[in-house]
Amino acid sequence: MYASNIKGRIADVIIWVFVLAFALSCLIPLVNLVAISFSDNAAASANLVSIFPVNPTFSSYEKLLSDSQFWRSFMISVERVVLGLLVNMVLMILTAYPLSKSSRVFTGQKVYMNLVIFAMLFSGGLIPTFMVVKELNLLDSIWSLILPGAVPIGNVILLMNAFRAVPKSLEEAANIDGASQWRILGTIYLPIVLPTLATVTLFTIVGHWNDYFGALVYINKTANYPLQTYIQQLSVEVQNITDPEKLLELAKVSNKTLNAAKIVVSTLPLLLIYPFMQKYFVSGIVVGSVKE
C-alpha cells in the first residue's frame, strides 16, 4: 500500500512538472513580447530583452495610440465583430437546426447535407469570390468582410451535432402541447446547447477580429481598414520628420518594438472576452463534436 502511494505521488509530480513546463512554454513567449513592446529600440535590436523590459518606454504605444486612424480602424473592427457575429449566429442556427433533423422529418436533408459538406471541402476560390463581391457593389464596405464568410460550415456542423444530442422526447412533448418549430427552437434547443453556442460565438469573434487578409482584398481605401489590416501595414517612418523632439522620441521605437506593441494591443480584447466563455468552451466542443 505504501509503495503504491509513493508511485502515485511520483506520477502526480511528473504530470504537474510536464503541465507546468508546457504552460511556461506558452506563457514565456507572450511575456517576452510584452517586455519587448515596453523596451527601447537599442535593447530590442540587440536582443537584450528577456521577460523584463530594458530601458522601459511607452514610445511604441504612444505612436500606435496617438494615430487617429488607429482608433478609426479599431471601431471598424468592433463594428465588423458585432455585425458579423449577428449574421453568422442567425444563419448558423437556421442552417444547423433543420439539418439536425432526420430525412423523415426534413425532406431532402441528405441532399442539403451533401451540399454543405461539398461547400466545406471545395470553396469557390479567391478570384470568383472577389468578382461576386465586386458585382454586388460591396467593395470598400463592411459587408464585403462579413458576407463572404456568413455561414462557417465547421461551426454549423458543431451546432448540428449539438442539436442532435438533445433528447427527442422534449420536442415530442412540445409538439403535443402545440408548440411551433420556432418556439421549440427558442425555448428548448437553444438553452440546452448554450455551451456550443458560446463556443461558436468565441470562434466567430476571434475569426472576425484576427482577419486582416479580407480587407487587403476587398477594401481599397486605407481609411476603411479594420484594425488588424491597419497595424499590419503600420511601420516606423522617419524620413519626413524634421522636429528634433519627434526624432528623439522615434529613436526609441523600431519596427520590432512597434510590432510587439501591435500584437499586444490587438490581442488584449480577446484576452478580456475569453475568461467569460472559458467555462463553456470544453463542454461545447465535446457536445458539438459527437455524432449520435
Number of contiguous helices: 15
Could you spell the SSE succession in H and E letters?
HHHHHHHHHHHHHHH
| Gross morphology | flat
Helix content bin: over 70%
CATH superfamily of the domain at 68-233, by name, is: MetI-like
Name given to the CATH architecture of the domain at 68-233: Orthogonal Bundle
The chain-level structural class is mainly alpha
The span between the termini is 42 Å
User: What fold name stands as the CATH topology of the domain at 68-233?
Assistant: MetI-like fold
Family: Belongs to the binding-protein-dependent transport system permease family.
Domain ABC transmembrane type-1: 70-274
Pfam families: BPD_transp_1
Protein name: ABC transporter permease
Task: Provide an overview of this structure.
- Helices cover 73% and strands 0% of the residues.
- Helix 1 packs across helix 15.
- The chain is flat, with a radius of gyration of 25 Å.
- It is an all-alpha fold.
- The protein has a domain at 68-233: MetI-like fold, CATH 1.10.3720.10.
- The protein is built from 15 helices and no strands.
- 26% of the residues are buried.
Produce a short descriptive summary.
This protein has a domain at 68-233: MetI-like (MetI-like fold, Orthogonal Bundle).
